[in-house]
User: Fold this.
Amino acid sequence: MPIPQSVRASTAVAQSQAYRGELPVRSFERLRPLLADDAGEVQIGLQASKSQGQARLRGTLDGALTLRCQRCEKPYAWPMHVEVDLRLVDTEEEEQSVLHEADPYLVQDDSLPLREIVEDELLLALPMLPRCESCENAIQASPAAPADESGEVRREQNPFAALKERLGKQQ
Assistant:
């Protein structure tokens, strides 16, 4: 079944409905401003089911998004694979009770907005500071501590060590 805008949650769970298809990146209104380019598609595979008495929505989102490197400002393709595993809950109390063991999704009016859920999961998966591979490698290769002219690594004095030394002299 293709990816509809929204489905009835009770029917989807009772019938263990599966949704497979592709959505263009340009169809995600909230995601688009965060991208360097809205070309491409996201492959979606979702399954609504009941497992151990709990309603769930599970699946994967795959594709490549074009992000802008925060260091060099060049666009780059960011391959993504997102695992979706949501516990569908009906009340805020139930949402709070499962919060420590699963990612809850509060179903309202028996509606499961699949495309909105997909976009939410994509937004959550984005890196906080996108960096292309060459900038990421440059950051990892840089030394952790600054070096002086002779090439020796300088050790910064811990400000708490100076405080400890002063407190030790007062006693």
